[in-house]
Amino acid sequence: MLITVLGFYGGYPHNGIGTSGYLLRDDNFNVLIDCGSGVLNVLSNYLDPTDLDAVVLSHYHHDHTADLGVLQYNWLAADKDQPLPIYGHTQDFVNFAQLTEGDATKGIAYNDYEPTNIGPFKFEFLRTIHPVPAYAMRITKGDETIVYTADTTYFDGLVDFAKGADLLITDTNFPEEVTGRKWHMNTKESGTLAKDAGVKRMMISHLPQNYKKQTLLEQSQKYAGDIPVIRAFQGLEVQV
Ligand SMILES: [Zn+2]
Ligand SMILES: [Zn+2]
């Protein structure tokens, strides 16, 4: 599996860099995971967006869906034979209904009690703790696994869900000094999660705009111990 970071900021885009979006490719199958602000533009550097095979959305916050409407217009204009499948949860029917746009795109429900096969990938979902329903994803192909926490407060269930992953992508929106009630993890929680879950590698993502990224990386690494930590940047490609 090859995963490419298209955007990594939390909340809003900044200085030409967008919010959450990851392109997952293998066996000639292209999946876009989250479709944040600025993602469609960057995606088109890699492939024609109408060559996507599926989109999977973790939740319906704008920083994960802002470019969905224009992606749907792109598909409407292309007038393809088959609609683009867009996978989303149904805990919010208004937003789920908007995944279907005429014959261009089609909303497909996922849930957290059975896996969903999308092309060559098996997706498993875990409801996270966030102000709106959101789902972490465990993506498996053959022996390889990628886990994406999506947006979440730290909770113990993440450790089991991420167990042994080859790559863990975490919502690391805060430095370690930000504690207390919050809807994302800080560097300490991300690093500790990587260590407790025994993952092979961790990527910190969903980063804040106004904090030194090198410091976020160093803080996360301190808590992750021996587990190599990398930080997301636009265009970063990781082969798993
Ligand atoms: Zn977010
Ligand atoms: Zn969110």
UniProtKB/TrEMBL annotation:
GO terms for molecular function: 3'-tRNA processing endoribonuclease activity. The keyword Hydrolase applies. The keyword Hydrolase applies. Gene3D superfamilies: Ribonuclease Z/Hydroxyacylglutathione hydrolase-like. Residues 18-206 form the Metallo-beta-lactamase domain. It holds the Pfam family Lactamase_B_2. InterPro entries: Metallo-B-lactamas (IPR001279), RibonucZ/Hydroxyglut_hydro (IPR036866). SUPFAM superfamilies: Metallo-hydrolase/oxidoreductase (SSF56281). Keywords: Hydrolase, Zinc. This is Beta-lactamase superfamily hydrolase. It comes from Companilactobacillus tucceti DSM 20183. The lineage of its organism: Bacteria, Bacillati, Bacillota, Bacilli, Lactobacillales.
